[in-house]
């Protein structure tokens, strides 16, 4: 996780932000929806330090014990009867919103010297909470840290898996291209990323852990997760939706193509570009049909701010759009010109950039007014709900699983020929975050139009199309929407 100390000072109207950031690898916890159902004790430490990320002191006794029951699929009930909501955040932890406060925790885990990982889904490793008052009305007194334990469990599990190591050789598409020719796939492909190290490709995908390996759990428990039952989802209702749609056709709604380079920051690019697009779209809507003047410089958000400063993410070792959206709600994200991207270095090691910058434009700190998984909670996303959210409010950030053959994509509607059927499991592995900007149909195949963050040289000048309506590679498993006022 990322821990930081944040100081925000206004001096003669100038906002000065300076932090110290300590980043470790993407957390390897692996806990599912059913693992955390039951009654939890949250032990709270109110402290302004939580605003900056430094959390929990063993020398200070908790000032409050807060008890909450997590029920399926997403109902949270406090001990005093207050009813709220909760959601898993992928397999990393969960967020609870109840009784006027918002709680987020990472699940506890341990990595052994041999690479064995144990996830203890009944306890937290780190947790933050704050009042549900939106920024900027929230004060430092609204913040705190907490630790949590599951005291009455519906299902207990300790999950085990091995951390995989990437091959030391370089990537070669030769065998992949031969297989694609044999299979006769309908999308186009070619040698694009040959010679890249597997470590670099893993960084490009934004994951420091191979999530397909994380699924291989101990035989002591079931991998089934009742939060997601796609085979019982109702048939989509497309009424009122256009047959095809793309925000790339609507003015300057979509930020120009960018490149994350050799840094696992896809989650940051996908989410900051989503928020930027929605800010632009909202500006046009507010103009009531008149010509809207959108400041193109202000409305490009800084991925570097997230990579260097966000305590809910792991810098160049990955993160999640839901938690970037949470960071934008809690702290705001500055415009790109305040903190330009520096972490990726083509052909070399990623650069560790400290959270240390100055921005003297008060308009450049951008907040969101809310955020959620499309469908209301992780595991409830559908093709139809994604389409409606996309058309109504703007692009959406999603995750999907990158396989070797995707590295060869040059055009057409991509589908991985060996995609796994996820209809019986709640956890859908994904390792790369991207931005859906539209949808349509090509040669009888429904597709999503997706903006990648690998520069204009990849795919369709940086974009790609992927099969729509069947959760191809998990593309419909964890869509995230952030809302702007």
From TrEMBL:
The terms under GO molecular function for this entry are:
cysteine-type peptidase activity; dipeptidyl-peptidase activity
Give the cofactors, semicolon-separated. chloride
In the Enzyme Commission scheme, what number(s) does this protein have? 3.4.14.1
**Catalytic activity annotated for this protein?**
Release of an N-terminal dipeptide, Xaa-Yaa-|-Zaa-, except when Xaa is Arg or Lys, or Yaa or Zaa is Pro
Top-level enzyme category: hydrolase
Q: Where is the signal peptide?
A: 1-25
- Report domain Peptidase C1A papain C-terminal positions: 241-483
Alphabetized, the UniProt keywords read:
Chloride, Disulfide bond, Signal
User: Matching InterPro entries, A to Z?
Assistant: CathepsinC_exc, CathepsinC_exc_dom_sf, Papain-like_cys_pep_sf, Pept_asp_AS, Pept_cys_AS, Pept_his_AS, Peptidase_C1A, Peptidase_C1A_C
For whether the record's keyword set contains Transcription regulation, the answer is no
Q: Decide whether keyword Disulfide bond is in the record.
A: yes
Any GO BP: proteolysis
**One matching Pfam family:** Peptidase_C1
Summarizing the function annotation, the protein's role is: Thiol protease. Has dipeptidylpeptidase activity. Active against a broad range of dipeptide substrates composed of both polar and hydrophobic amino acids. Proline cannot occupy the P1 position and arginine cannot occupy the P2 position of the substrate. Can act as both an exopeptidase and endopeptidase. Activates serine proteases such as elastase, cathepsin G and granzymes A and B.
Self-association state and partner proteins as the record states: Tetramer of heterotrimers consisting of exclusion domain, heavy- and light chains.
Q: What family does the Swiss-Prot or TrEMBL record give for this protein?
A: Belongs to the peptidase C1 family.
Supply the PANTHER family for this chain.
CYSTEINE PROTEASE FAMILY C1-RELATED
Protein name according to UniProt? Dipeptidyl peptidase 1
């Amino acid at each position: 996780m990322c821990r930081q100390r944040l100081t925000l000072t206004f001096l003669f109207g100038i906002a000065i932000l300076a932090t110290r950031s300590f980043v470790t690898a993407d957390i390897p916890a692996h806990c599912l929806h059913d693992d955390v159902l039951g009654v939890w004790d949250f032990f709270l430490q109110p402290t302004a330090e939580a605003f900056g990320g430094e959390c929990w002191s063993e020398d200070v006794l908790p000032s409050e014990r807060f008890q909450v029951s997590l029920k399926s699929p997403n109902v949270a009930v406090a001990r005093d009867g207050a009813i709220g909501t909760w959601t898993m955040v992928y397999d990393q932890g969960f967020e609870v919103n109840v009784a006027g406060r918002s709680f987020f925790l990472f699940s506890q885990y341990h990595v052994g010297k041999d690479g064995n990982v144990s996830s203890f889904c009944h306890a937290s490793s780190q947790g933050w909470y704050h009042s549900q008052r939106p920024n900027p009305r929230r004060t430092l007194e609204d913040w705190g840290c907490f630790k949590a334990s599951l005291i009455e469990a519906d299902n207990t599990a300790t999950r085990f898996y091995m951390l995989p190591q990437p091959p030391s050789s370089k990537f070669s598409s030769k065998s992949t291209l031969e297989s694609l020719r044999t299979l006769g796939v309908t999308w186009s492909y070619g040698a694009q990323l040959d010679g890249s190290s597997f470590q670099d490709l893993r960084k490009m995908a934004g994951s420091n852990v191979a999530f397909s390996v994380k699924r291989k759990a101990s035989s002591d428990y079931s991998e089934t997760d009742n939060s997601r039952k796609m085979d019982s989802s109702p048939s989509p209702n497309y009424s009122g939706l256009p047959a095809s749609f793309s925000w790339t056709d609507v003015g300057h709604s979509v930020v120009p193509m960018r490149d994350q380079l050799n840094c696992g920051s896809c989650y940051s690019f996908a989410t900051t570009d989503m928020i930027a697009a929605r800010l632009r779209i909202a500006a046009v809507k507010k103009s009531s049909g008149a010509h809207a003047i959108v400041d193109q410089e202000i409305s490009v958000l800084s991925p570097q701010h997230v990579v260097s400063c966000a305590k809910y993410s792991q810098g160049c070792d990955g993160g999640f759009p839901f938690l970037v959206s949470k960071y934008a709600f809690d702290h705001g994200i500055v415009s790109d010109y305040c903190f330009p991207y520096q972490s990726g270095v083509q052909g070399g090691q990623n650069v560790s950039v400290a959270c240390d910058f100055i921005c003297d434009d008060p308009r450049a700190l951008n907040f969101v007014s809310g955020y959620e998984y499309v469908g209301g909670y992780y595991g409830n996303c559908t093709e139809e709900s994604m389409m409606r959210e996309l058309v109504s409010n703007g692009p959406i950030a999603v995750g999907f699983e990158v396989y070797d053959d995707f590295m060869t994509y040059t055009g057409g509607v991509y589908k991985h020929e060996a995609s796994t059927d996820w209809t019986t499991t709640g956890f859908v592995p994904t390792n790369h975050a991207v931005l859906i900007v539209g949808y349509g149909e090509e040669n009888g195949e429904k597709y999503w139009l997706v903006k990648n963050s690998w520069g204009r040289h990849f795919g369709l000048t940086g974009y790609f199309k992927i099969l729509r309506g069947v959760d191809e590679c998990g593309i419909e498993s964890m869509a995230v929407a952030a809302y702007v006022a």
